[in-house]
From TrEMBL:
Residues 6-64 form the TRAM domain. The active site is at C411 (nucleophile), C411. One of its GO terms (molecular function) is rRNA (uridine-C5-)-methyltransferase activity. This is RNA methyltransferase, TrmA family. It comes from Lentilactobacillus senioris DSM 24302 = JCM 17472. SUPFAM superfamilies: Nucleic acid-binding proteins, S-adenosyl-L-methionine-dependent methyltransferases. S-adenosyl-L-methionine binds at Q286, Y315, E336, D384. The keyword Protein biosynthesis does not apply. Belongs to the class I-like SAM-binding methyltransferase superfamily. RNA M5U methyltransferase family.
Amino acid sequence: MKKQIPVVKNTDYDVTIEDLSYQGLGVAKIDNFPIFIENALPGEEVKIKVIKTKSSFAFGKVVAFKTTSPNRVELVDKAYTQTGIATLQHLAYPAQLEFKQHQVAMDFHKLGLDVEVEPTLGMDDPTHYRNKAQVPVRLINGRLETGFYRKHSHDLVPIEDFYIQDKEIDKAIIVVRDLLRTFHVAPYDEVHHKGVVRNIMVRRGYYSHQMMIVLVTRAKKIPHAEEIVAGILAKLPEVKSVIQNVNSAKTNALMGPVNNVLAGADVITDTLLGLNFAISATSFYQVNPVQTEKLYQLAIDKAELKKDDVVVDAYCGIGTISLAVAQHVKKVYGVEIVDQAVEDAKHNAKLNNIRNVDFVAAKAEEQMAKWQSDGLKPDVVFVDPPRKGLDSTLIDSVAEMNPKKVVYVSCNPATLARDVQLFAEKGYQVNQPIQPVDQFPQTIHVESVTVLERTTD
């Protein structure tokens, strides 16, 4: 027998918003049955229409506001909500920071972990902060367009001002788009796997102002490539690198394995915490340089490093944390699964004349186990994993290495809390407040720095 639920699809209801979900959706309840509603804030009384029902929850949309929250601000553009570019644009920035602090605290509370969470470190200007864009190129109503996909779809919403990206990057995308239109370059057709240009990627150094343009193509050749490149260089004097990335597979992966330099160098450079970094088309480099400097400096300060310390940096990427740390310690060992990132890290060490670092290309959990079996005894371990968090075998290896401290830079508070619980079983505790950092203003995402200290010898 089908479970009876207290709401009916396409029916209107009067509700009061009780909470914000971790996805930034307003939460209302009818007979204790949760309904998730876009563009709705706690305390607001709204008329909603139920648009989708499941056995244990439903989704609704606002039909009319009866009362509005004092934390509500006017939408800049509804497209930013539709696409997920700025899911929190309707929430005043101080309230966004509180929301993120609350999210971190709640993920620990759910696991029964008693920790203190500091107020989120925000930005003076929480817009136009991204130093990288990667936008699809598609045919809309017979015209080549750039923009972003509507949430949970591959329907392109044409956008020119992306709100959270560097304004110069937005301008560059328009320049490239218009050149592709001028020379009648066919945009990618996802359904039939035809067309030439799939995506445009733009990187811009925050301090250097060097710009890289990457044309991600299905085809190996770009019609009128020379004229297009000449147009890019003429209209965008900051451009130091134009690259074609060939992604001929029928896949959702954004980039392919082949990069061809069409003009300039194969990298651009920028500085972070006073160090120089070469950034390639495929490099992982934090997208918010202002907040990254706060995040990494915080991690270094909280580690309380000493000159004779040996440090391991798991998930070292192109060496940003490793090289910043190396200035304060005796030796740093870094591991990263992406071969190109490790090559970039080694290059960046030479670029900065830093010799007390060793970088290895391997799975972090496997390399940590190898180092542990080889007898490596670090004083501090830094981890900066992807959203899925740490593999339990890596936590085992770290515990066997027995460092005094583990400094955990997290982009997902749920997996952070899970991993802290696993570390607690190995004799490591959080003895100081967790510090959230707003790396992605206007979105639901938050980074944080947590220090775990060994409680047993």
